[in-house]
């Protein structure tokens, strides 16, 4: 049995669009981090990614699968069970994502200040 994902894995106050470094779409990097320790079901991913709709999570997972980062496995049986797992290519993203996370954490206050200053400027 694997450990459940921490519902507080991602700070709900932290806007993921604040980080200027992107991997795919807004959710791509967070999904990859959720899959870091092994395969997960769709419903498991929704726990720490509570701000994402089912439609957007499905679209992001399909994009990750299309790009070769994730493999989708449907297990046979009376109850349909689907899991998503990182491929070796997807695993290769873990290090750059960790570096981007560390950079954003180090520059968090400057990023917030810049966003607030920009929001106050007339366009």
Feature tags:
3 strands; Arc Repressor Mutant, subunit A; single chain; 6 helices; 123 residues; alpha+beta
Spell out the blueprint of helices and strands.
Layout: H1 28-34, E1 40-41, H2 42-45, H3 54-66, E2 70-75, E3 81-86, H4 88-91, H5 94-106, H6 108-120
Task: Tell me what you see in this structure.
- It is built from six helices and three strands, in the order αβααββααα.
- The chain is of the alpha+beta class and 123 residues long.
- The chain has a single domain (16-120), classed as Winged helix-like DNA-binding domain superfamily/Winged helix DNA-binding domain (Arc Repressor Mutant, subunit A, Orthogonal Bundle).
Summarize this entry quickly.
With 123 residues, this protein is α+β, with helices and mostly antiparallel strands. 44% of the residues lie in helices and 11% in strands.
Q: State the name of the first-level CATH class.
A: Mainly Alpha
Roughly how many Å apart are the termini?
A: 53 Å
CATH topology descriptor: Arc Repressor Mutant, subunit A
Main sheet, how many strands, which sense, barrel? 3 strands, antiparallel
The CATH homologous superfamily is named Winged helix-like DNA-binding domain superfamily/Winged helix DNA-binding domain
Shape: elongated
Average pLDDT metric? 84
Helix share, percent: 40-55%
Helix/strand order, N-terminal first: HEHHEEHHH
Using DSSP, what is the number of strands?
3
Uncertain parts? none
Organism: Microtetraspora malaysiensis
Pfam families: HxlR (PF01638)
Keywords: DNA-binding, Transcription, Transcription regulation
Protein name: Winged helix-turn-helix transcriptional regulator
């Amino acid at each position: 049995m694997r450990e459940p994902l921490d519902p507080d894995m991602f700070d709900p106050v932290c806007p993921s669009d604040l980080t200027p470094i992107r991997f795919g779409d807004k959710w791509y990097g967070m999904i990859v981090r959720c899959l870091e320790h092994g395969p997960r079901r769709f419903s498991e991913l929704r726990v720490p990614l509570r701000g994402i709709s089912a439609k957007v999570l499905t679209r992001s997972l399909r994009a990750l699968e299309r790009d070769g980062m994730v493999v989708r496995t449907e297990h046979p049986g009376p109850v349909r069970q689907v899991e998503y797992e990182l491929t070796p290519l997807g695993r290769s993203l873990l290090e750059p994502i960790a570096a981007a996370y560390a950079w954003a954490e180090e520059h968090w206050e400057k990023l917030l200040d810049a966003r607030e200053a920009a929001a106050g400027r007339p366009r």
